[in-house]
């Protein structure tokens, strides 16, 4: 949302007010600092050992007071976090219109990913205006009965943020990353955190990675390890102390994006990386059996490989040894955005409130 906040702040007739719940305090603060955003409201709800019940309840209650004070004409929420659902529900209780940014993503399985699939579906059921990143997302919304005039296909704001953050001359402050000869090594960037993969599925992924590093002497793995103990324990057991495997602390947004730009390949169970990495020409192997971003699979920038050890090993080995296969993925067109999503959303808001009589043109990556 950061580039959208900046875009709206420059728009005549629009006053953006920023409310954060800080359900992940450390992850939030570094992004606010990077983009120079000072929240107007900060609920600071994060607590040690928090559950989904805790986050949801504290967010709704805190946002009740925020909305009473701010009295906004429109509440914008993004994506599929618990904060997103809570904010949409809080706005609904006060009968304030809701705009859903990154609307319409679906897997069709309410437990995959969990709880994100239901967070976005419930936010979408409440929303009055839907800013869908792609035509596929638009079709999902239409099938759910959303009126066509309430949907805007904009591309995804995450691509706007990414393109504003990558720097050719970026220098890493982390000593492990600074020491990697990126021009001489092929770096596999790995992230894992999905609840449905905890335990044995993750162990199989890590065993495949260890086998690949042992087989290919020019391959290095960089793995920003999620802070959850359920992830960390298995990572340390399988990959701790393995040569050319760098287990680092979770990275701030800016160094992470620039690390991705220098990597050869991305392996992840994240949703957002399926959009970000292809914008940088990086193939993505998704450690899941379902995805809410099927456009990337169709375009060829992403493969669903799941967590089976042999299947993952075979897919990575192919991309390490068959240059044609690698180039097909690396050079495929990213369907998720051109860096102009925020401008389209601003135009849509101007149209919604009658500041303009022209709706923004749909984003179409095939054009």
TrEMBL record:
It comes from the Bacteria. GO terms for molecular function: UDP-N-acetylglucosamine 2-epimerase activity. The keyword Transmembrane does not apply. It is an enzyme of class 5 (isomerase). Its EC number is 5.1.3.14. The keyword Isomerase applies. Coiled coil: none annotated. Keywords: Isomerase. SUPFAM superfamilies: UDP-Glycosyltransferase/glycogen phosphorylase. Pfam families: Epimerase_2. InterPro entries: UDP_GlcNAc_Epimerase_2_dom, WecB-like. Residues 6-349 form the UDP-N-acetylglucosamine 2-epimerase domain. NCBIfam families: wecB. Belongs to the UDP-N-acetylglucosamine 2-epimerase family. This is UDP-N-acetylglucosamine 2-epimerase (non-hydrolyzing).
């Amino acid at each position: 949302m950061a580039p959208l906040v900046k875009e709206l702040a420059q728009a005549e007739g629009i006053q953006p007010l920023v409310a954060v719940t800080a359900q992940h305090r450390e992850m939030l603060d570094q992004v606010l600092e990077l983009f120079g955003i000072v929240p107007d409201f900060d609920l600071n709800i994060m607590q040690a050992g928090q559950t989904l019940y805790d986050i949801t309840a504290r967010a709704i209650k805190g946002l009740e007071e925020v909305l009473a004070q701010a009295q906004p004409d429109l509440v914008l929420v993004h994506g599929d976090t618990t904060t997103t659902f809570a904010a949409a529900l809080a706005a609904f209780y006060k009968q304030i219109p809701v705009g859903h940014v990154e609307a319409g993503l679906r897997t069709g399985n309410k437990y995959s990913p969990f709880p994100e699939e239901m967070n976005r579906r419930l936010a979408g059921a409440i929303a009055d205006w839907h800013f869908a990143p792609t035509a596929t997302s638009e079709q999902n919304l239409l099938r759910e009965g959303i009126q066509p005039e309430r949907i805007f296909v904009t591309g995804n704001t995450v691509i706007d943020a990414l393109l504003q953050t990558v720097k050719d001359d970026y220098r890493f402050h982390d000593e492990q990353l600074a020491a990697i000869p990126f021009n001489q090594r092929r770096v596999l960037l790995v992230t894992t955190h999905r609840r449905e993969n905890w335990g044995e599925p993750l162990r199989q992924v890590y065993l495949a990675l260890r086998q690949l590093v042992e087989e290919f002497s020019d391959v290095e793995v960089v793995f920003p390890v999620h802070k959850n103990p359920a992830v960390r324990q298995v990572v340390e057991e399988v990959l701790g102390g393995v040569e050319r495997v760098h287990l680092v602390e979770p990275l701030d947004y800016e160094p992470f994006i620039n690390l991705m730009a220098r990597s050869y390949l991305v392996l992840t169970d994240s949703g957002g990386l399926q959009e970000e990495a292809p914008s940088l020409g990086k193939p993505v192997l998704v450690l899941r059996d379902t995805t809410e971003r099927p456009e990337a699979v169709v375009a060829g920038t992403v493969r669903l490989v799941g967590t089976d050890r042999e299947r993952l090993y075979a897919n990575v080995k192919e991309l390490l040894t068959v240059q044609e296969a690698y180039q097909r993925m690396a050079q495929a067109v990213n369907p998720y955005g051109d860096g102009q999503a925020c401008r389209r959303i601003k135009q849509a808001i101007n149209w919604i409130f009658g500041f303009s009589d022209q709706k923004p043109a749909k984003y179409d990556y095939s054009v």
